[in-house]
Structure formats: C-alpha cells, structure tokens
Amino acid sequence: xxxxxxxxxxxxxxxxxxxxxxxxxxxxxxxxxxxxxxxxxxxxxxxxxxxxxxxxxxxxxxxxxxxxxxxxxxxxxxxxxxxxxxxx
Length: 88
Fold this sequence. Notes:
- With 88 residues, the protein is mainly α.
- The chain has helices at 3-6, 21-26, 28-49, 60-63, and strands at 11-14, 53-56.
- A two-stranded parallel sheet has the order 1-2.
- The two termini are 22 Å apart.
C-alpha cells in the first residue's frame, strides 16, 4: 500500500489478518508480516493521509475472554497466545 490508497477517506476499517494459531503456525513469518507489520503500515499511512478514524477489528485473541465484562480500546490486552503479544 502507499499513501494514495488511503488518501481522501474519513475512516478505515481494518479487517484483514490471519485469524487463528493453526493457520499462523503454517508460516509464522508471513503471519507476522500480515498481522503486525502490514497493520502498522496501514495505520501509519492513515495518519500521514489525515484519516480521522482507524478502526482495527480483532477477536478475543488480543483481549482474552471477557466473560460478562465489556471491553474497549482502553482495556488491558490479555493475549490468548504469545503470537498475539504485540502491544498498543
């Protein structure tokens, strides 16, 4: 991606990623490139382009099982696996 891909948008809803450990274990380097490095790249481009909102959709893999509690972007991360252990 480059700046032209995100310029002119009010918001980006980032849904792309490899979603489970068995898939990630097939090629850990590719998983890191997609789930971590590419996500950071898109966010950095969004900032540079002046995009007002960047929404990163995730599963409980980042926040852990909440039970009856509601979680938000400000909630502590409690990754289900070590592969998801990157921080905000």
